[in-house]
Amino acid sequence: MxxxxxxxxxxxxxxxxxxxxDPVVKGLRSLTQKVLAPQGIRDALHxxxxxxxxxxxxxxxxxGAWSAAxxxxxxxxxxxxxxxxxxxGCAAAVPTALTGWADWxxxxxxxxxxxxxxxxxxxxxxxxxxxxxxARMRGRRVRxxxxxxxxxxxxxxxxxxxxxxxxxxxxxxxxxxxIPDLFPSGWHDIGRLDDLPDGKPAKRTVEGVDLLVVxxxxxVDVLSDKCSHLSGPLSDGEFTVEGGQGCIVCPWxxxxxxLADGAVRHGPATSPQHRFETRVTGGRLEVSxxxx
Length: 292
Hints:
Elements: H1 7-16, H2 22-35, H3 39-46, H4 54-72, H5 79-104, H6 109-137, H7 141-168, H8 179-182, E1 188-192, E2 201-206, E3 209-216, E4 219-224, E5 238-242, E6 245-249, E7 256-258, E8 264-266, E9 275-281, E10 284-288
Antiparallel strand pairs: 1-10, 2-3, 3-4, 4-9, 5-6, 6-7, 7-8, 9-10
Helix pairs in contact: 4-5, 4-7, 5-6, 6-7
């Protein structure tokens, strides 16, 4: 049977390819990277400290508050409660937007095109909810409710696009989560130790799974090569030292991982890299994901 695509999905698919949005994307990305330039701020907004993207956690507050307000607005005598929820959502929308812009600035072009419209819908929603609060304060309750329901519609559209970014385009997902399922059990030979470059990233492959290998003298660190952020090849990245420990920097968006354990040092990645155990047998390097 022929496959069919929902009309709304077709529209969003076109957004991914809408190169007309690129000048807007370029300008906003440049501005965002300037405003959020300090690495510590970016790491905090990405959610490196949380081990999980911070943006989707914060979105629960405005979405939940505004959705509850929509219910209360349909019930007589709940005006104060609805207004309180709308105000809560408006306040929470600001830090939520900051985390979203930080994540957006480190995505690929198709992600960023959809992300711009996602952000625009949310800005419209915030504006409508703010206007709704103003109308309610002036005693114009019917107008306030109408503006709130319009804001709810804009928020829903923005939420749909946010879901598309995550579930269709993989933004914010751990792109290395399947490594334990793909990598075969046991120990596997990946070549002679002396054939590995000293102090430089190298790539080796075991049954289709690419590995980052960094040798320093007789010490070898092996991580999954596919960056957990957006699958960038870490073996093409740069070896660096931070806090006295060797690290690898992803060549695509600058995510930095500690070689000793795969932990994230700097975002935009928030999920660690899988680390492999190593041993040398007869001058040949062997690796295992579980040591068994």
